[in-house]
Amino acid sequence: MKLSIVIPCYNESKNIPLIFSRFSEVIKRNDIEVIFVDNGSSDDSDAVLKQLLPNYRFAKSVKVEVNQGYGFGILTGLEAASGDYIGWTHADMQTDPYDVIRALEIIEKSPNKNIYVKGNRRKRPFMDQFFTIGMSFYESVYLGEKLWDINAQPNIFPKDFYSSWSKPPHDFSLDLFALYMAQKSDLKIKRFDVFFPERMHGSSSWNTGFEAKKKFIKRTLEFSKKLKKRLQ
Q1: Which of 38, 88, 124, 136 could bridge 63 with an S-S bond, Cβ 3.0-4.6 Å?
Q2: Where are the alpha helices (DSSP H) in the chain?
Q3: What is the pTM assigned to this prediction?
């Protein structure tokens, strides 16, 4: 298997059929698998996955019985991955599944296979861009690495790199951890533009207003301190 891509799904029952359909349109080869993680959903995501899975040869799923965080769901999926390259993207359809194919093409064209490919979001609301710039600047200065648009999707990298991780976080700071570790491990970081439309269905579990952003910032800064202390 060349690539395993993990899709963490938390109450995404309305988006899941759209994701399956779009991946079916863009996957034109037999060496890509898509691992859907039912991340402790309380809606009928599990039933939707069970209904759709038999119809798509590229798809499989794993289930987290009780939600333990965004990062935990992704890590559960990565444990089930068999690809030479692995990674994740979101289930909210704000990043096109075709971006995963574009990322794989970048990897295959690169002479350096020790590579970390990550999206770079475009056409976002001004306040979201402002928030991203502020967090990126802070994390880059604080951790001493170039950390831009940390939560952009997809994230794809060699499976061997994942095997080197120690105690990755179980929350939204997994994106920060992975990008930071890629920088520290001297992987070639390759960014490419992805477009970021409005959600089609459902709602964000964290980007729901100023108070939610404050909580997200607080958790991220706390993890940054722990990460810096651990690696000193």
Answers
A1: 38
A2: 16-26, 45-52, 70-79, 98-109, 126-143, 159-163, 174-184, 210-231
A3: 0.90
- The backbone region for 114, taken as left when phi is positive above 0, alpha when psi lies in -120 to 50, beta otherwise, is beta
Tell me the pairing of strands 32-39 and 85-88.
unpaired
Query: Considering the domain 3-231 in this protein, what is its CATH number?
Result: 3.90.550.10
Rounded distance, CA 141 to CA 139, Å?
5
Nearest partner of 3 among 61, 86, 114, judged by Cα: 86
Task: Tell me if residue 48 falls in helix, strand or coil.
Answer: helix
